[in-house]
Amino acid sequence: MNARRGEEPLKAADTRQKALRVNLDLQRYGTFAEIGAGQEVVRWFFRVGGAAGTIAKSISAYDMTVSDAYYGSCERYVCRPRLQSMLDFEYESNLTQLSKVRGDDTAFFAFADTVSARNYKGTNDCHGWMGVKFQAFPRDVESQVIIHVRMLDADNALQQEALGVVGVNLLHAAFYLQADPDAFLESLLDGLSVDRIEVDMIEFSGIAFRQMDNRVMSMKLVQLGLSNAAMFAADGSVLQPSEVLYKKSILVERGSFRPVTHVNVDMLRCAQEKFAAEEDVEADSIIPLMEITMSNLLASGQVDYRDFLARVDLMATMGVTVLISDYFEYYRLAAYLARYTQSRIGLAMGVASLRELFDEKYYIELQGGILESFGRLFKNRLKLYIYPLLDVETNEFTAVQNLEVAPNLRKLFEYLVERGCIEQLNNFNESYLPIFSRDVLGKIEARDASWEQMVPDEVAALIKQRGFFGYQP
């Protein structure tokens, strides 16, 4: 952990100690701006003593008109643009007003949050945006880190308390844990638990974080248990799930994507065509996602970050949004997606995955077993779109119509098919059926150039350009 010359490193993850360390740091000086849920973060710095050396201003522009006067108008007050406008305004105000007086010896910062804590009726989505824009050293170029949190306590006072703790943790980590990404993330919930706070988005920017890849950091949120899922766009920018998925129709394809093959792309295309044809689905509202589970990334025992980024870069060439989740069970994935939308949800999968879906060993922890899991999975009119399988050795073709399931589940399977919960895709490209990603990897390793015909041109070009998966000319 970083410490200034002559200063003892912090030995305990205590909120009071963290706040006091910041207050006693003679270089740190800045502003706290908080909207919603009170001024719970700055309260810690006032409470521990020494605040006069740290706090230039504390403000809560709670009234919408007052808030707009400071930060400009916006449609929503608990959103990322509002947080950014708060950070920019307060940070620039510090530089403008204080640089001449103390700029040579002071690293200025602006902390901000905009939060919707539990309302009186308990009907709102309890979440918030929080961030800090700061100088790592006096006269330094600014850096920034922002997070999105979901507050899970059932009581408003407890939510405010948790918000104050995570705010102190964020400020302390930004100042003293810049060089240790894992410690940075793990420290965000010091003094809390995942039962109280979920951090489902984090984004680093600026000179202090120039070595960090936001995609890796997003994945680590899931790996470390701070969040159940993370999302980023094809251009690599970090996304907050609720803002992307809100009121949208969602179509997900789960896979290893190691690498992306013609089958992966064709499966999503076929499913999207069928999904868009549903009566209550607007084609323009569909958000297609490619999802990788943490269990897949941890298949070898630990995450290979270079391999992870290779897969993500290849998915990016297809222009789709990427979802990383720890929802191994499909019914848990369905519940997660339903949190953000009341529109239709579709899952595209191969027939082999459908076969596994009807394997009762995956549901032994549920009191209601497979029936309970399917009740949860199809609760919100979710639909499965099934891509067929061709065994290249036996030439056996497997689809929904001839899939074998356990005899005791046959009636259940037929019922779900007849009800329209499971649909066989018939608009697939037959020439792609013999393609398997394991064969692509084998051919790359063997320097058999025929693998290039098994993946999209963009994927092949990037694999060759960057030497992914051990490719050599």
Describe this structure in words.
The protein is an alpha/beta fold. It has two domains: 15-212, Maf protein; 242-470, HUPs (Rossmann fold, 3-Layer(aba) Sandwich), CATH 3.40.50. Helices cover 38% and strands 21% of the residues. The protein is built from 17 helices and 16 strands. The strands form three sheets. The chain has an eight-stranded mixed beta sheet with strand order 8-7-11-10-9-12-13-16, sandwiched between helices. β4 and β5 (142-151) form a beta hairpin. α2 (40-48) packs across α5 (156-176) and α11 (305-316) runs antiparallel to α17 (457-466). It is globular and about 80 Å long. The chain starts with 14 loop residues before the first helix and ends in a 7-residue tail after the last helix. Residues 1-12 have low confidence and may be disordered.
